[in-house]
Amino acid sequence: MFRLTRLTDYAVVVLGQMSLQHERIVTAPQLAEETGLPLPTVAKILGLLSRQGLITSLRGAGGGYLSHQDAKEITVADIIQSIEGPIALTACVEGAVDNCSVETMCPMRGNWNRVNQVVANALKTVTLADMIDFENNFIVDKQKSDVSSAKLN
Fold first, then answer.
1. Torsion sign across C-alpha atoms 31, 36, 39, 43
2. What is the pTM of this model?
3. Which of 16, 62, 76, 130 is paired with 100 by a 20 to 30 Å CA distance?
4. How many CB atoms lie within 10 A of CB 64?
5. 134 φ, ψ to 5°?
6. CA atoms in the 13 A half-sphere facing the CB of 131
7. How far apart are CA 90 and CA 148, in angstroms?
């Protein structure tokens, strides 16, 4: 099964919280309190996101972390790559960290690159703004629940 780590999921939560007040300097303890995530987890996520340039780390008194990018400019692919590294579904995909022991004689060699590229491109079309836009993303479900509520009354 292809599954993202919990850390990546939490990174979306942290960046989503930061994007609600764009250009606001926040600290790891503030974000931990606002998101309900453990402080060590938030600190680790902020470090990874900062190293990859998705956010800026500010040192000294009054320091913290700052997001310069609008949520519409940050893709899910950007977040995944910042936390987990290159998007690679198998060990034989270009850019994968692991090497496959039978790669040189494998009949599938190179074909997974197409699949990987399709998945990566799909992840590049979904933005952080899409992920945190609860009102519009769940409007169909809201309409269904309104109809169900009306039937019950």
1. negative
2. 0.77
3. 76
4. 19
5. -65, -40
6. 27
7. 43
